[in-house]
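Class prep. Protein, please:
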Amino acid sequence: MIRRRSLLSGLLASVAVPALAETTREDRARFMARALEMRDEAARRGDQAFGAVVVKGGRIVGEGVSAVITRPDPTAHGEIEAIRDAARRLNSRDLSGAELYSSFRPCPMCEAAAAWAGIVRVWYGSELTDGGAPRMSR
């Protein structure tokens, strides 16, 4: 007799959950410092003071500053810009295993974009608050 896996177990088996790279508190502080530099750059450009970086494999692969006002583009949040930059640099929309460091807690749009990209953890604010895995809605 041939056994068939249930639809649910088949779907769960097809979802790979990447392991987080071990990052130290010092690494996280360095990544957040860069996100805060991006925030300051956004303000210098005359935009909203938000910035973010995407980290994968222990290195920054994407950076973003808010361009909502200067572009103008209502979707050009710092986090979205960092995700777009990482996707361009890595030539892939799949950022599985990456982490997002943001100067402020990401809005629902940015959190959903991080989830769609495969980002596994969000850190925000100068206190390095662990936002956990991004969700599609709050």
Observations:
- The chain is about 35% helix and 20% strand.
- Confidence is low (pLDDT under 50) at residues 1-19.
- The CA atoms of residues 82 and 134 lie 15 Å apart.
